[in-house]
Amino acid sequence: MSSQPNRPDLFMQAAIDEANKGLAEGGIPIGSVLVHQGRIIGRGHNRRVQSGSAILHGEMDALENAGRQSAQVYRESTLYTTLSPCAMCSGAILLYGIRHVVIGENRTFMGEEDLLGSRGVSLDVRHDSQCEQMMHDFIARHPQLWNEDIGR
Fold first, then answer.
1. From 43, 50, 51, 91, which residue has the greatest number of CB atoms within 10 Å?
2. Which residue in the list 18, 25, 59, 112 is annotated as catalytic?
3. Residue pair 44/59 in contact by the 8 Å Cβ criterion
């Protein structure tokens, strides 16, 4: 697992843009993009609130919006997410054989990084200040919604 604080990255910025879109829609600000061969093939944001969904976390939405892909495409892809993936999203990462995940931050929520790493997924935690601030602000303003989303 590597850590590169605040390194500019267009794909992480696209995930942050998705998180901001979700926030503007009244949802939880977590965004994700799936990148294959240097091109975004799926983008999404947490839409549990907006869609009344039990499963549309940012990563799940990005995978859904990427559409059906071959196993090879998933193996060659990188998933960018603004927040450490939860158990559900980590399961999807493992199910589809995604081998590299770039994480904006894991200080406000530590997902299943140990599981992912133990299964050979390469993790790059960025400790991105935008991602951290967005989550801190959201959690302070909406603690009940945040606790609902993470199951507390």
1. 43
2. 59
3. yes
